[in-house]
Design a protein that fits this description.
The protein has about 350 residues and is α/β, with parallel strands linked by helices. It folds into two domains: about 80 residues, CRISPR-associated endonuclease Cas1, N-terminal domain (Ribosomal Protein L15, Chain: K, domain 2); about 240 residues, Up-down Bundle (Four Helix Bundle (Hemerythrin (Met), subunit A)). Helix content is about 45%, strand content about 15%. It has ten helices and 13 strands. It has a five-stranded mixed β-sheet. It has a four-stranded mixed β-sheet with strand order 5-4-3-7. Strands 10-11 form a two-stranded antiparallel sheet. A hairpin with a 5-residue loop joins strand 10 and strand 11. It is globular and about 65 Å long.
Length: about 350
Amino acid sequence: MRILANTLYVTQPNSYLSLDGSNIVILVSDTESKRIPLHNLQSIVTFNYTGASPALMGECAKRGISLMFLTEHGRFLARVIGETHGNVLLRKNQYNASDDEKICIEISKNIISAKLFNSRVVIERAIRDYELRLDVNKLKDISSAISTCIKSVQVSKNLDEIRGIEGEGANRYFSVFDDLILQQKDDFFFITRNRRPPTDNVNALLSFVYTLLTNDIAAALETTGLDPYVGFLHRDRPGRVSLALDLIEELRSVLADRFVLTLINTRQINGYGFTKKEDGAVIMDDETRKIVLVAWQKKKNELTMHALLKENMKWGLIPYYQSLLMSRYLRGDIDSYPPFFW
């Protein structure tokens, strides 16, 4: 359990939420685990829940506290809320900002700068940890090139220019991704990023994990009242969670890509769990998918340092905190959107 910006996140398995007076009581196996005054809260987000009492739901509705239910994997299920006080204004601000090119450019610069910075950190961390097994000069050259891309983003004048620099930086990053695969090279190798469909084992893993992370971010945006389908760098398209695709950019390398590399390099998965179809598409079997999902949940429970908050928090809560920061920016509470720097 954790409180961020007046939002209570209940991540402990088998938690039942109940009401006692003016307090929310979290019960685990019928034993009281935590008691928190409701007047301190604006919203409650619960994962892997066993239920919530009707009395609590009614009290939350009366107080204007949103109560949100997500699956254990972070997929949004439902929101219980009384009268709408602020979400409509927040979403209006979001829609207006999405139509304002200047705001879109500012947000996109921040997001892509963080993406490139974090990609560079992944390479630098690999150099530090595996110096004797890697071509250090090659990796340092790529790291330096990505650093130049970061500077170029800062002086970009339009979204197309930002997208072009982002693409250049991503190509340079992925040009050495195969170097970071240290085990099982016969089954797991990376030539280039491909999708729809992925045509090798590594790309199949990347696409699957990116989907998991996108779903987590979309759920996080729902809990803060933002519309996941209206973005700033990624433009509107029916059925596409454009804002979730915006926010995933800063987390791809440090969360999703490093997770995939860990699965391979620690041999948690092997090549037998993948099948190549007649059309060239590579798919995972059910057992491998289950292994990835279990490992993903464990990864989200690991701690990392949030530079802005200056404290450790679970990886799984990072999308929720970034969504809160985005909503604060769109409300005008802060001057700019601060992306996640690892």
